[in-house]
Every structure is written in structure tokens, then in C-alpha cells.
Write a structure and sequence with these properties.
alpha/beta
Length: 278
């Protein structure tokens, strides 16, 4: 039986690239996202500048996974609905019987996530709390219990520099707002706690900062002002994807736990991604 990876937020961007990387490496792959088919509308979702849903869906990712021949499963999951999270975990465990690697990549990404401070309201922060803290906690606890029963597993959380430092620019000039920064800051504490509490029971837990990655969501949120962020350095989604595969499969990665891993510098130093940077 092959190893199983569960990846949240795999309809596009980093999540999709990660699903493809693990499938290419021989893993059975379970993916979750809100968007089941192209063009599907979801409440509190990002859109293109002209108001259309972002490209990408579970169906599209599944079609690309099919070429690798492994077992795959797509499960609709909305972080803003606790029942949806529970149902997703139930289906993955019922189908595969185990999860060897969990990648917490999905986040709440509504249009209001980077609202300027005086325009940010409590309803947005409530969704941030649900999407960045409560739902990942609920999902991870369930999967962690299954990992402990199987004597081990790896958890990788996709963080952000926004959770660790102040923005270089205001939100309307390409920086981030308090909502996004607060959500990522809280989420960044999870992996270190898990590694400390369960490292002696076969559990490995990492937080990575992918850096600026050129995804559909990034382009939708920053638009023309995105040049300010891109100038700081960027990478395609395959870079953090390959870094997460490396973390999940290489024993020397153990030493990188309990601090945030900067994915792009690590990829360069270890030459993890062939042909990158060019």
C-alpha cells in the first residue's frame, strides 16, 4: 500500500502543484477545496478583476493527477463550515484508511481579507478565526489522532511572512492587512506545538513560508500594484510544492522543525527544484 497525502486547497496554485508533485513521487493523493468545477461561485471567494471566479477546480486537478496512475480522491471542503471539514476527514480516512502526510494549505481568502484597518470589520475577523485557526485545528487534530494510531506521520503547514513581520506597504499598495496577518500569525504556532508534544511518537511537523508565489489568487488580489511585491522576488508554485515533498520524504528535514522554513532559499541551497532558478 502506497503512502497517502491529504492536501487542502488543491484546486489551484500551490495546493494543485503540491498534489501533482506528490502524485509524481508515487503517493496516493486526497485533495480538498471549495471549487468542484470550473466557474463555480462561492461566497466570500476571490474573483478576477472583472468579477469572474478564479480558474481552477477539484475536477481540473483530478484530471491532471490521472496521468500518474495512483489512487486519488477529491473531496469538497469549506473551511468556514465545520461540518464540511469533518465530512472531508471522514471520507479520506474511510477511503484510504490512513494519512501519512497532511498539508494544510487552504485558507480563507475573501475579498475583504486585506481590508485597510479602519475598513476591517468583526465579521471578517470571525471568518479569519474560523478559516485560519478553528478549521485547521479541527482537521489537524482528527488527522493527528489517526497518525498516532499508525505510529507516525508528517504535518506541513503553509504559512506566510505576513504572520511574522509588518507589511512593506499599506494594503491598497500591495501590502497585507491586519486580517490576513493575524490569521497567519496564529496558524504559524501550530506546527511547533505539535512537534514539541508528539515528536517522540513519530510525528514530524513543519511550517513553511513559500514567499511570493505567482498564483491565480495573487494576481487577483494585487493586480497592477503587484509589481511592488513581485520585485521582492517570486517563484512558480512548483517551488514550494517540491520543498514540501522534500520535507515529507527526507530524514534530514527533521532538523528544520520548530521554526519557519523559507521555501525559496531552502530550494536554492539544497537544489531541490531542477532548473530553478534558471
Amino acid at each position: 500500500m502506497g503512502k497517502v497525502v491529504m492536501i487542502t486547497g488543491a484546486s489551484r496554485g500551490i495546493g494543485k502543484a503540491t498534489a501533482l508533485a506528490f502524485a509524481r513521487a508515487g503517493f496516493d493523493v486526497a485533495i480538498t477545496a471549495r471549487t468542484q468545477v470550473e466557474g463555480q461561485h462561492s461566497d466570500h471567494a476571490l474573483t478576477t478583476p472583472d468579477g469572474r471566479p478564479l480558474p481552477g477546480s477539484l475536477a481540473t486537478t483530478m484530471a491532471e493527477l490521472a496521468v500518474f496512475g495512483g489512487r486519488t480522491l477529491a473531496v469538497p471542503m469549506d473551511l468556514l463550515e465545520s461540518t464540511s471539514v469533518d465530512n472531508a476527514v471522514d471520507r479520506v480516512l474511510a477511503t484510504f484508511g490512513r494519512v501519512d502526510v497532511l498539508i494544510n494549505n487552504a485558507i480563507y481568502e475573501g475579498q475583504d481579507i486585506n481590508a485597510p484597518f479602519l475598513k476591517l470589520d468583526e465579521a471578517t475577523l470571525a471568518r479569519v478565526c474560523q478559516g485560519y485557526v478553528l478549521a485547521p485545528f479541527r482537521l489537524t487534530r482528527r488527522i493527528l489522532e489517526a497518525m498516532l494510531a499508525a505510529d507516525g506521520g508528517t504535518i506541513i503547514n503553509v504559512g506566510s511572512g505576513a504572520g511574522e513581520r509588518d507589511p512593506p506597504f499599506p494594503p491598497d499598495q500591495g501590502g497585507w492587512g491586519f486580517g490576513y496577518g493575524a490569521g497567519k500569525a496564529a496558524f504559524a504556532r501550530m506546527a511547533g506545538v505539535i512537534a514539541t508534544e508528539f515528536g517522540n511518537r513519530g510525528i514530524r511537523a513543519f511550517t513553511i513560508n513559500p514567499g511570493v508565489v505567482v498564483t491565480e489568487a495573487l494576481m487577483a488580489t494585487i493586480g497592477d500594484k503587484g509589481a511592488l511585491a513581485i520585485q521582492q522576488g517570486s517563484a512558480p508554485p512548483k517551488v514550494p510544492a517540491e520543498v514540501m515533498l522534500w520535507l515529507a520524504t527526507r530524514p534530514e528535514a527533521d532538523a528544520l522543525q520548530k521554526h519557519t522554513i523559507q521555501a525559496q532559499p531552502l530550494a536554492r541551497e539544497r537544489k531541490i527544484v531542477p532548473g530553478w532558478p534558471a
